Amino acid sequence: MNILILNAGITNFNYVKTIDELEQTIGVNHIGQAYLTKLLLPNLIANCPSRIVVVSSDLHAGPPLNYQMLDQWNSGMKNGWHIARSYQQSKLANVLFARALASRFQSQQITAYSLHPGVIKTNLGSGIPLLGLAKSFLKTKTMSEGVATSIFCAIKTDLENETGEYFADSTVQNDADKWTEQDLEQFWNWTEKIIQDKVK
Known about the structure:
The chain has helices at residues 24-46, 67-74, 83-105, 131-135, 143-146, 148-155, 181-198, and strands spanning 2-6, 50-55, 110-116, 166-168, 171-172. It is of the alpha/beta class. It has a single domain, classed as Rossmann fold, CATH 3.40.50.
């Protein structure tokens, strides 16, 4: 079985753009990973069964994906940009991406899962004032504890029926059940358009 784990993640205190002129948080946390997956999909399909594991966060909970707002941020307009909002939208995109992959490629023996790893002792957000202090009040996990759910989703046998689901502490949370096929199609097309516009 082939396994792809998408674990890239950043958060920014200020509005920053990628070299490709995308708002950096959505660019790194979702678009870059979606593009990598797009490049690898032919091999994943040709050598199936394959699994794709997308590391998200419980912080995905909140407003639905706001495509107009994200497009404005990607075009350089900072209106409404906020550290928490940009991170929430990117982590929600992670959950939707796993769900969309599961919907589109299950017939080709590709399964996909998203997950919350927990609050881990890493340097994520180390440049953000007071975040380190806030973490000291939260129940954190060691690195080994933090990767446990990712490994579970990657290698657990007989997990095919849970494709598209969202996990925390190696348990399905059912957070990925609320989107329709139309929602997933809209999300997929939006992601594809951004990739196509940037790799012409």
